[in-house]
Amino acid sequence: MDEQEYAEYRRNRVRRLKKIIPVTIFIAILIPLLCSIIFLSLFIHTKRELNDLQTRYDELLSSMEQLRDDIDYIDETKDVYTVSDVTDSKRESTEESASTDEVIPDTEEDVTDVREVYLTFDDGPSSNTGEILDILAKYDVKATFFVTGKTDEVSVAAYKRIVDEGHTLGMHSYSHRYSQVYASKESFIEDLTRLQEYLYEVTGVWSRYYRFPGGSSNTASTVDMKELIEYLSEQDITYFDWNIVSGDASGNILSADRIYENCVSNLPEYSEAVILMHDAAEKHTTVEALPRIIEAVQAMDDTRLMAINDDTFPIQHRE
Ligand SMILES: [Zn+2]
């Protein structure tokens, strides 16, 4: 290779290098850029999937809660009917003994000459509370609300209205979840205290009346009900069951006529009647039946509608 050829060779090499360098730089930028784009899209995709999963998880949780409520509700319905059967059989046996021996007086009738009727509404506040309160106000009747713990604005206003309009504010557990309320004595106390303090905070009333979810004779509690009853009495809280069921706890919505019949037909047998009704959104037939029930009771001789107070004899399925 002579000098001229060598110079030519070097020029060619420099020219080639000049071409290679920009291509290399271009590739060096392009590859990481492509990688970043791929990773970014992968990241976005995974994030979207995670969000979907989170949504599905939330949905599952809420349907589980709904299911738990349904189970509690079924438990309560079942309990109500068990108790109703017991009451019926008691009544029958009283009737039998009365017919065999006519001198046995109906002691309940002899205690007072004025029949006291207590309308009690469980499970509220609900979207029906306002209407129930309007009806009670229209007929100038006081009733008792065994409420659960709800923190939304409408419920808070309902608690206040119950108190302001002279009704009795009773407690029916904060959560109304049998599995929670009756899991242990400690969880019962925690639930009760939470509701009592919450109601005090909202209304200034320290409630001293309680209705057990499912009644004191419920079969859902894993704790001996005697222990819970004892605790209530230590806290100076009186619990109330019922001796007349409106039947509105049933899973099927009863007609207003049936509810009216259930409430009114057995009334004459009691000198003190505590009627179990429900203040729940889906129980609108209860609201429909209410004016007629009040009118029927007000038309009865020596009968008055009252709110539970310290002088009320507590109807209890378990003592
Ligand atoms: Zn209830």
Give the topology.
Layout: H1 3-100, H2 107-111, E1 115-122, H3 129-138, E2 144-147, H4 153-164, E3 168-171, H5 178-181, H6 185-203, E4 209-210, H7 225-234, E5 238-239, E6 244-245, H8 256-265, E7 272-278, H9 284-299, E8 303-306
Parallel strand pairs: 1-2, 1-7, 1-8, 2-3, 4-5, 6-7
Helix pairs in contact: 8-9
Folded structure, characterized:
The structure is a single chain. This protein is α/β, with parallel strands linked by helices and 319 residues long. It has a single domain, classed as Alpha-Beta Barrel (TIM Barrel), CATH 3.20.20. The chain has nine helices and eight strands. It has helices at 3-100, 107-111, 129-138, 153-164, 178-181, 185-203, 225-234, 256-265, 284-299; strands spanning 115-122, 144-147, 168-171, 209-210, 238-239, 244-245, 272-278, 303-306. Strands 1, 2, 3, 6, 7 and 8 form a six-stranded parallel β-sheet that branches. The relative contact order is 0.13. Bound molecules: zinc ion (ZN). Residues 76, 122-123, 172, 176, 213 line the site of zinc ion.
Uncertain stretches = 78-110
Gyration radius, rounded? 35 Å
What is the N-to-C order of secondary-structure elements (H for helix, E for strand)?
Answer: HHEHEHEHHEHEEHEHE
How large a portion of the residues is in β-strands, by DSSP E? 5-15%
**Helical stretch tally:** 9
Give a count of the beta strands, DSSP E runs of length 2 or more: 8
SSE class: alpha/beta
Molecules bound to protein: zinc ion
Characteristic terms for this protein:
single chain; 319 residues; alpha/beta; TIM Barrel; six-stranded parallel sheet; two-stranded parallel ribbon; 8 strands; rod-shaped; binds zinc ion
